[in-house]
Amino acid sequence: MVNIIEVEHLSKSFGDNVVLKDINFSVTKGEVVCIIGSSGSGKSTLLRCINLLEKPCGGRVIYKGEDILNEQHDVYKYRQKLGMVFQQFNLFNNHDALGNCTVGQVKLLKRSRQEAEAVAMEYLRMVGMEQFIHAKPKQLSGGQKQRVAIARALSMNPDVMLFDEPTSALDPEMVGEVLKVMKELAESGLTMLVVTHEMGFAEEVADRVVFMDDGVIAEEGSPQQIFNNPSEGRTREFLKRILNQ
Amino acid sequence: MSLEWVTRILSEYWTMFLRGAGITLLISIIGTVIGSLIGLCIGVIRTMPTPERGIKRISLKVVNALLASYIEFFRGTPMIVQAMVIFYGTAMAFNIHMDRLFAAIFIVSINTGAYMAEIVRGGIISVDRGQFEAAHAIGMNHLETMLNVVLPQAIRNILPATGNEFVINIKDTSVLNVISVTELYFQTKSVAGNNFRYFEAFFVACIIYFIMTFTVTRILRHLERKMDGPESYTLNQMQVAAPEDMFRLGNPN
Questions:
Q1: What is the pLDDT of residues A54-112, one digit of tens each?
Q2: A84/B134 Cβ within 8 A
Q3: Which of residues 118-177 of B touch A (CB under 8 A)?
Q4: What is the mean pLDDT of chain A?
């Protein structure tokens, strides 16, 4: 069991607003970790601190044994190793679906256009978007955009995939198509860190579930333990609230 | 006013008008293009995230201050005065005698650059935050983000404002007659003076200016529409592309 990402004593605040307090946790290779918790509990911020879209205020983030907050560490190279999927998709509006999946490969990984397109097609086919390779983002539905966004992240052949509430901005009937893709990915053995409100998905797919509350990790454990037998009162309360909706 | 004079002026002096219009277009096209490039460079520098400390932070601050004073100075003084100061000033102070056409293009370029810098900055700011984040998340640095993701979108957004600048430049090159550049206004003045027919000569110039600006705005509008592309994606369009794509990308089976 090799830890691919370790977070030690991580803290983050925006001005006086303390969002993360002394977070410690790790992800091992091939593991699927779901982070759940109510809005404002710091789930997304934790994810964004891991790929340094937000700069942590304290603590350490260790990737494959290297402290990435070290000034000498190349942030850009590091981010290429982490695939990120956003709640709002954030597809590059000036590129079509294929271009979204190739621009990073060509410009950053220095792959040839041909090679990049072959890789991109493989993943676009996997997410079922091969018919739309020349569509611009504005011509796609939310679910389609998110599937292209997943293909874009995968095209960089990342070590870890980070999902930041990937289905929260989708119409209910489109949630299924995205979750299906994510489930396939999880089964393929990819290391995944998923912030989600989809409890069914977390219960079925996750190897481990982390429950966050008010900037701290309140409880973590196997899905069975968290969903069937939570030890913390606030976990029980949160699950009761969200499952009764 | 007599139509005879208009036709007579046109038939006798059409080469002068044409040459004047040509010079006007030349100055405004090159001026707008160079000005836009200056604007793009400054826009990219001015939107750079400030490093937390060290020499980089200080040098970025210094560069930003210099750029800000450039913008403020050239936006805050009339181009006609800048033309006099730069053209005669360099001749007096440094004994450099600039070619008049070169001086004209130079003045229009740096003037447009000052305006475009702010337009570009606005265009960059108007691009959705998520686009920057997605580019950063994939591992792009500031320059790569700008070149591959943000600027193409920003340029689309600022196209109407750039068209405005272009039209303004076509009209405002007329002030460069103060340094005797043989643009359209200068030529018209000579034609008018030769015949003492001011109204007719300037009436012709008026029409030529309008034709130039109107053509430019139409071309830019067309360009905008072309850049936007269709709103919906039809699979029909894709079927036409499919065989070639299959060939190029390798058959899925």
A1: 999 999 999 998 898 888 888 999 999 999 999 999 999 999 999 999 999 999 999 99
A2: yes
A3: 128, 130-131, 133-141, 144, 148-149, 152-153, 156
A4: 93
Longest Cα separation, chain A: 55
| pLDDT range class, residue A160, cuts 50, 70, 90 | very high
Percent of chain A surpassing pLDDT 70 = 99
Mutate to test the interface with A, among B55, B129, B138 (most CBs of A within 10 A): B138
For the cut 60, the answer to whether the pLDDT of residue A198 exceeds it is yes
Determine contact, residues A49/A84, Cβ cutoff 8 Å.
Answer: no
pLDDT of residue B185: 93
The 3-state DSSP composition of chain A as helix, strand, coil percent (nearest 5) reads: 40, 25, 35
The ipTM (two decimal places) reads: 0.92
Residue B240 has pLDDT above 90, yes or no: no
Asked whether the predicted pLDDT for residue B197 surpasses 90, the reply is no
| Residue from the list A103, A118, A156 with its beta carbon closest to the beta carbon of B249 | A118
Parse chain B into domains and list their residue ranges: 3-228
Following DSSP, what letter does each residue of A67-121 receive, concatenated?
ETTSTTS-HHHHHHTEEEE-TT----TTS-HHHHHHHHHHHTS---HHHHHHHHH
| Buried-state track A193-206, b at ≥16 Cβ within 10 A, e below 16 | bbbbbbbebbeebb
On whether the CB atoms of residues A2 and A28 are closer than 8 A, the answer is yes
pTM of the predicted structure, to 2 decimals: 0.84
CATH for the B3-228 domain, from 1.10.3720.10, 3.40.630.30, 3.40.50.300, 3.40.50.10700: 1.10.3720.10
For residue B38, how many other CB atoms are within 10 A of its CB? 22
Neighbour order of strands in the sheet with A3-14: A17-28, A3-14, A58-63, A66-67
Query: What confidence category does residue B253 fall into, taking pLDDT thresholds of 50, 70 and 90?
Result: very low
- What DSSP string runs through B135-190? HHHHT--HHHHIIIIIHHHHHHHHHHHHHHHHHHHHHHGGGGGGGT--SHHHHHHH
Reported as type and span, the H/E element at residue B38 is helix B3-46
